Amino acid sequence: MDTVDENHLGMTKPANFQDMGNRRALRDIRNLVGAPPYPRQVGKRGLTEFLTSSSKNRIDDKNLTFEGRRPITRKFSASLANKSQLYHQETGGGHELVGIDRQKKPAPSVLSLNSLGTCTAARDVDDHKSVNELPLPMVVETEEMDNSDLKEVEMEDLVLIPDIDSCDSKNPLAVVDYVEDIYNFYRQTEIAGCVNPNYMSNQFDINEKMRAILIDWLIEVHYKFELMNQTLFLTVNIIDRFLAKQTVNRKKLQLVGVTAMLLACKYEEVSVPVVEDLILISDRAYTREEVLQMESLMVDTLQFNMSVPTPYVFMRRFLKAAQSDKQLEFLSFFIIELGLVEYQMLKFRPSLLAAAAVFTAHCTLKGFKHWSRTSELHTSYSEDQLLECSRLMVDFHQKAGNGKLTGVHRKYSTFKFGYAAKAEPALFLLDSRS
Question: What does the similarity note say (predicted)?
């Protein structure tokens, strides 16, 4: 027999039956006429004939839908079984429902529905019983079901989520086939990147005001180095997770900040700032050796875990669900970066922060509450769930240009970011407090 050449597939002649020895051809292996059917399996046609003949024309064939017009859910099957039992009790029928024995343990139902929508006989039915002797649990009163019950059965498991990824179906970087699974994973693991919102109580030499000063300064450094947005969010996350586990002297707090940015750059950026640049930007307050020692301490404390979902990853998805333009995008990032500075925002999950920022930006631009059904389904947050966080963001927006910490306001007051900071805050959200 000729061998197969992987580089010239199809060039060899097929093996004949003499070369096959005692092996049977595929068509002879119980897949043609003569092969015994699967035991105790009733085909769709046979089952329909059985039901119509047993019920003496009381069941309309239109009610026996196995192809999706009338879904047979657990609730539907249970209601049919109960109605059938009541029917037999009232009429004194000669047949007793299989599986209803008051003195014995319940047996499996006579008919079961598999995933393909075809009915098969239960395994516990005795072989000597013929098909005509099987009791009929689906006896009938499907026509008497009112329309409200029908709608409840059909819609109980149906949730339509608008497709926002069809426009990226040909973009391999959008990973349309896996994007929902990716964000489901983010939602399941985002709690791992959260910290105790009261961790400052364990610090003896620093407080939340010092943290706010540090992050406001790092936002300016991030802007000056022209780093990516995800780098900023990861930097803040690393700082909080480290401070939640390690006490720090106030003189070392700025060192923690620049080292966290160095780590975030190594994780996110293509071109990483060198250590000397970070030393220079911190006015040479630290040496190269101190930065490297702090880097070693931080990655050891965090157990090298840099892969945590930050608000940024949810912002990209939620802005897409909101069908955002540049104006909405800039304003949303302005609002959420104001929240990065504030210590009290640590009590909210990253996904909630992102959703609240998009919601607040929508309300700011439109002048009224606006949260579309598409955004609600993709974020899994309703308008009521976002109001608490959104009201805090409006308060930060109102005070952004005042005080000493104005780094975010100055950043988003430029042409590059569409003068987003100059938008009027949605003060009506504060007035609607219940």
Answer: Belongs to the cyclin family. Cyclin AB subfamily.
